[in-house]
């Protein structure tokens, strides 16, 4: 059970960090999930991954609510950096590193959303957790959980961040992967902007098989039938693709999406760049 928990730890840590805004707070929440797992009968846990996700999210929800009460007790709203605060004692440079890894869009989410909306938004829109599981975490019906996530998206858009729909981005990337694997040129063309750019970095170029391309037709023809070893992942808070043989990421594709279509694909094989990416493997 301990080994299975350790295998799940990176994903749980990523979920908690997006909810709490602090690497140290996230580590504490994940450790609390371990303590709770240690107190239950393993035979009673049918789906360990789902159980751990639910427990970690509930711990985060409790902490977010407590944080909100403390702000209200002080008679006002916390300073802008407190809702994405790093642990006490972390210097500004480390706080900036944490904020960068969470992602600019999610910083906004962490700042403006009430706890239940934040939980629903992060679990469903970022990590594709079904609403029936989200409902268990927030203690509401699946339909109510769906409404929480919907309100969260509306709040984020209303904050002036532009078109931020992480669930839609996830769908576009997933559809791209399916079309590429299936050799569906027509499907790829529907997902690509006419002026889309494919940009492999120097390390990706050395791997062979890719070169810089511009235009939907050129990109679709090159990628159709490929990406068979790629898998969905969350890269710095948004959907992308990685090549991760034996669980170790060797390459990644970051997508630029506007108006529901892909405008650029940035392919990297640079180990240093990959090391800096916050990667959560999906599926």
What is the spatial order of strands in the main beta sheet?
2-1-6-5-4-3-7
CATH top-level class of the largest domain: Mainly Alpha
- What is the distance, rounded to the nearest whole angstrom, between the alpha carbons of the first and last residues? 20 Å
Q: Provide the succession of SSEs.
A: HHHHHHHHHHEHEHEEEEHE
Task: Outline the structure in words.
This protein has helices at residues 2-20, 23-38, 48-73, 92-102, 104-112, 115-126, 131-138, 142-161, 166-181, 185-191, 202-207, 216-223, 271-276, and strands at 192-200, 213-214, 230-235, 238-243, 251-258, 261-268, 279-281. With 283 residues, it is of the alpha+beta class. It folds into two domains: 2-162, Butyryl-CoA Dehydrogenase, subunit A, domain 3 (Up-down Bundle); 167-281, Nuclear Transport Factor 2, Chain: A. A seven-stranded mixed beta sheet has the order 2-1-6-5-4-3-7.
Secondary structure: elements and pairs:
Blueprint: H1 2-20, H2 23-38, H3 48-73, H4 92-102, H5 104-112, H6 115-126, H7 131-138, H8 142-161, H9 166-181, H10 185-191, E1 192-200, H11 202-207, E2 213-214, H12 216-223, E3 230-235, E4 238-243, E5 251-258, E6 261-268, H13 271-276, E7 279-281
Parallel strand pairs: 1-6
Antiparallel strand pairs: 1-2, 3-4, 3-7, 4-5, 5-6
Helix pairs in contact: 1-2, 1-3, 2-3, 3-6, 3-7, 5-8, 6-7, 6-8, 7-8, 9-10, 10-12
Give a short summary of the structure.
This protein is an alpha+beta fold.
